[in-house]
């Protein structure tokens, strides 16, 4: 069938990308060393290579993959429940809420990394989404409109708080915060990976379970209600879901823009948004994209890592503009 | 066209239904019955409350007072999905934001019948295919819903309703922005399904030609109800729609047929508002085609 063919294509690209992510980097490893370290004899691979792969590149690549999946899913959820093609975690203030939490902890305690920072980011984004729901969530009519407007307003509000805090901080803290907001996978550690993995897997499960209802919402609230869908409850559940997704990723990786906005559009462009398959493929493509962004961030500059957010924004927007251009071109013909 | 109607056993019984916004009474004290298997039309000028009444019937709005019984059961006592298994709705306009295919849209009709993770069975796929064939769109199954014409979109929505397997189909002006051919096509398609249908109409002649019973609303009240022959009279048209007209028998099916008179601007136009002037001449053009 066409669909299983498509899935196996994406999965094989994923496998290739993942092995590439383990192979390419500052220390030159060979494809053979990676395979030996993964499936065979540690001694033959070399102990240094083995620890580079298992202690550094493996957790980092898993984090990159999971972050890509999660952000793409969050974007898809938000675009679907608001029926707005521009919706992504940034638009709803989820990301700026997280930044706000981080900035507060950094400026008050001077701590530049670690668990507390992640926790602060998590709390910040939940605060943003809590306020959003409080303001717009329970107003049944024009729920979508008020949510979008409230999200944009909250986003600016948190940004202004963040800027204010930055204005008062010392230059060192400012550059640490800047680095954080641009995103990085260098903080990946085995013992912190479980949280985003767990969140992404369970959210994907829930989205698959509610896939029919999500499709129904695309045809308008009233139409969905006539199919028996409790639109308000679905929308609030899904909004919470996407904020937990974003929060758990932003907490570990910092702000990574554009992935949540772009990936769902790319997948939609090729296979539409109808089936469960397109949901899974959206998540996978997001993960694969992020793996390659991470590879790029490690190899573009010698002995230095480029922040993730710079690459996603640059690559993403160029690709996206091309896609729009091609589509416009095609529709004219 | 041979539908068995059972007047003694109404599928829907509405009693003393009222609904209002915080400031305005939109529906007051509406009562009527719909016989099983009948095609009921709802007529009335803009703002008469047709959409609001339908919304109360499909539970998008909760009546302020009164009762709606479906097969003797109060509709407010049913769960969302149980209700959606009995009543399907085709709306006037279906917004579409991302590319769902015709197949995807029709498959939405399965929602009230499916549990969370269940996939489409072969029987479901057959049902979807048959429904799409029934509305004559088999060659467009894979097309983006958005790329269809207005008439095709409404046929897709009817196919979705077929997949929903309801006992009652409610339609809120499903043809109001379509070409004449599609107005007739959509309504005849709905009638051919063999289930009970309640639809609101803009075109009085179309309603007269197809409906077994008509409900005429004016300012939130049920002005008249009954068969087209009893209801569509020159007096009613003047009372409700504020137009002068002549009612005759249609040459093909003998149902009442309305011919409108013109010239509202020249003589005494105190009684005629803007709406009447805009809408009625357009309808007359359709009759001529």
Automatic annotation (TrEMBL), chain A:
Specify where it is mainly localized.
membrane
| Pfam families recorded | FecCD
Q: Where are the transmembrane segments?
A: 61-78, 90-109, 115-136, 148-168, 188-209, 239-263, 275-294, 306-326
Sorted alphabetically, the Gene Ontology BP terms of this entry are: siderophore-iron import into cell
Q: How does it sit in the membrane?
A: Multi-pass membrane protein
Database matches in CDD domains: TM_ABC_iron-siderophores_like
Q: Which InterPro entries match?
A: ABC_BtuC-like, ABC_transptr_permease_BtuC
Keyword Signal attached:
no
Q: Report keywords, A-Z.
A: Cell membrane, Membrane, Transmembrane, Transmembrane helix, Transport
A GO MF term? transmembrane transporter activity
Question: Gene3D superfamilies from the xrefs?
Answer: ABC transporter involved in vitamin B12 uptake, BtuC
Query: One cellular component GO annotation, for this chain's record?
Result: plasma membrane
Tell me where in or outside the cell this protein is found: Cell membrane
| Highest taxon listed in the record's lineage | Bacteria
What family does the Swiss-Prot or TrEMBL record give for this protein?
Belongs to the binding-protein-dependent transport system permease family. FecCD subfamily.
Question: What is the name attached to this protein's record?
Answer: ABC transporter permease
Which species is the source of this protein?
Psychrosphaera saromensis
The uppermost taxa in this organism's lineage are: Bacteria, Pseudomonadati, Pseudomonadota, Gammaproteobacteria, Alteromonadales
């Amino acid at each position: 069938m066409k669909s299983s063919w498509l899935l196996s294509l994406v999965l094989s690209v994923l496998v290739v990308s993942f092995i590439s992510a383990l192979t390419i980097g500052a220390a030159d490893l060979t494809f053979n060393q990676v395979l030996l370290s993964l499936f065979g004899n540690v001694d033959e691979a070399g102990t240094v290579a083995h620890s580079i792969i298992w202690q550094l590149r493996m957790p980092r690549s898993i984090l990159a993959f999971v972050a890509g999946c999660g952000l793409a899913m969050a974007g898809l959820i938000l675009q679907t429940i608001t029926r707005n093609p521009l919706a992504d975690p940034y638009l709803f203030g989820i990301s700026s809420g997280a930044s706000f939490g981080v900035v507060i902890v950094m400026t008050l305690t001077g701590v530049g990394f670690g668990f507390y920072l992640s926790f602060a980011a998590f709390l910040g984004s939940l605060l943003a989404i809590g306020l959003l729901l409080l303001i717009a969530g329970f107003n049944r009519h024009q729920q979508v409109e008020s949510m979008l407007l409230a999200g944009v307003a909250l986003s600016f509000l948190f940004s202004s708080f963040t800027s204010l805090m930055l204005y008062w901080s010392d230059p060192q803290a400012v550059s640490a915060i800047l680095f954080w907001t641009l995103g990085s996978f260098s903080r990946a550690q085995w013992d912190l990976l479980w949280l985003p993995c767990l969140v992404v897997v369970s959210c994907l499960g829930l989205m698959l379970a509610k896939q029919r209802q999500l499709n129904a919402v695309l045809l308008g609230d009233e139409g969905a209600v006539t199919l028996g869908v409790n639109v308000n409850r679905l929308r609030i559940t899904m909004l919470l879901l996407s904020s937990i997704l974003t929060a758990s990723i932003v907490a570990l990786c910092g702000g990574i823009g554009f992935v949540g906005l772009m990936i769902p559009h790319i997948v939609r462009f090729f296979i539409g948004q109808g089936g469960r398959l397109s949901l899974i493929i959206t998540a996978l493509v997001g993960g694969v994209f992020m793996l390659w962004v991470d590879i790029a961030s490690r190899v573009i500059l010698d002995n230095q890592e480029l922040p993730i957010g710079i690459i996603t924004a640059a690559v993403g927007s160029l690709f996206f503009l091309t896609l729009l251009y091609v589509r416009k071109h095609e529709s004219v013909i | 066209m041979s539908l068995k109607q059972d007047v003694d056993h109404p599928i829907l019984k509405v009693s003393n239904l009222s609904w209002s916004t915080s400031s305005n009474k939109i529906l007051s004290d509406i009562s009527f019955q719909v016989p099983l298997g009948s095609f009921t039309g709802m007529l009335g000028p803009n703002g008469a409350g047709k959409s609001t009444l339908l919304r109360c019937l499909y539970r998008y709005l909760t009546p302020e007072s009164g009762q709606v019984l479906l097969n003797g059961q109060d509709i407010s006592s049913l769960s969302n999905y149980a209700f959606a298994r009995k009543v399907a709705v085709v709306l006037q306009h279906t917004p579409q934001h991302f590319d769902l295919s015709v197949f995807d849209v029709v498959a939405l009709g399965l929602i009230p019948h499916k549990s969370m993770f269940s996939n489409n069975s072969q029987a479901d796929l057959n049902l979807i295919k048959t429904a799409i064939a029934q509305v004559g769109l088999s060659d467009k199954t894979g097309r983006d819903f958005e790329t269809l014409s207005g008439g095709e979109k409404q046929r897709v929505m009817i196919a979705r309703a077929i997949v929903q397997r309801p006992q009652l189909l409610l339609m809120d002006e499903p043809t109001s922005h379509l070409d004449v051919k599609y107005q007739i096509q959509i309504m005849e398609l709905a009638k051919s399904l063999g289930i009970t249908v309640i639809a609101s109409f803009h075109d009085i002649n179309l309603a007269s030609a197809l409906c077994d019973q008509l409900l005429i609303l004016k300012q939130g009240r049920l002005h008249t109800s009954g068969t087209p022959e009893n209801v569509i009279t020159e007096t009613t048209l003047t009372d409700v729609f504020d137009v002068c007209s002549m009612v005759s028998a249609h040459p093909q099916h003998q149902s009442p047929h309305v011919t409108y008179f013109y010239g509202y601007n020249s003589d005494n136009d105190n009684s005629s508002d803007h709406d009447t002037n805009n809408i009625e001449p357009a309808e007359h053009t359709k009759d001529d085609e």
